[in-house]
Amino acid sequence: MTGWRLLITRPAEECAALAATLAEQGVYASSLPLLEIEPLPETAEQRALILELDRYPAVIVVSKPAARIGCELVDRYWPQPPARQVWFSVGAATGQLLQDYGFETCWPTQGDDSEALLDLPRLAEVLAVPDPRVLILRGEGGREFLAERLSGQGVSVDYLELYRRSLPDYPSGTLPRRIAEEGLNGLVVSSGQGFEHLRQLAAEDWPALARLPLFVPSPRVAELARAAGAENVVDCRGASAVALLAALRATPAAAF
Fold first, then answer.
1. Distance between CA atoms of 122 and 103, rounded to whole angstroms?
2. Which among 162, 184, 241 has a CA at the least distance from the CA of 32?
3. Which of 10, 21, 157, 193 would you call most buried, defined as having the most Cβ atoms within 10 angstroms of its Cβ?
4. Distance CA 184, CA 30 (A)
5. Torsions phi, psi of 60, nearest 5?
6. CA distance 105 to 94
7. How far apart are CA 243 and CA 111, in angstroms?
8. For the segment 107-162, what is each residue's pLDDT rounded down to a tens digit?
């Protein structure tokens, strides 16, 4: 596994944490954040949803930024979390943030995606009430999959959008230059939008970079990447460092 030299692309704070974890396992990581998180200004609509938080037996949080910003917002209006309310997260890292804020939290142990979350028996149990309602904390313009599936089961779904994601401003040629200068032989993205930003930054260099092994968090992102021409896609079946390390162990390092 020490033969891997990876480009990691999460938001800056998450890149630093992942790079440290990889270094402990002998994996070199070069951080190039491709998702910049900008909290949205607090609006009257946001306040109204938070003030009526106790209407929701379940709250779903889809990312660490949503957890951090959402918990700070709740903390301003609720001295104690609403009783008999369960918070759900897509992954363990987000779930741990919620637990640290004092929420009763549940997340899937098999898979870090919306599909695994929807399969949780605890979610079905919490929503087995008259007129079930769910509040989803997410970024601006996120995936509709969760809401569509829950609505199809008779659940009322509201969104609390807390931040927007953008591609940081890098000079032209930054991506291929970084890969060449540091001898990187693998790329890592943590979401579909992260992959789209990778392609956008690669621009005319994408066909060459598409030959590199690309580690992705889910079958959905793997499908996106293959459709865009990525030739060697590895589905880690999760966005955590543990999932990435397992995929690295199972995949021989490649020269570039």
1. 15
2. 184
3. 10
4. 8
5. -110, 130
6. 10
7. 9
8. 998 766 788 899 999 999 999 999 999 999 999 987 788 899 999 999 999 999 99
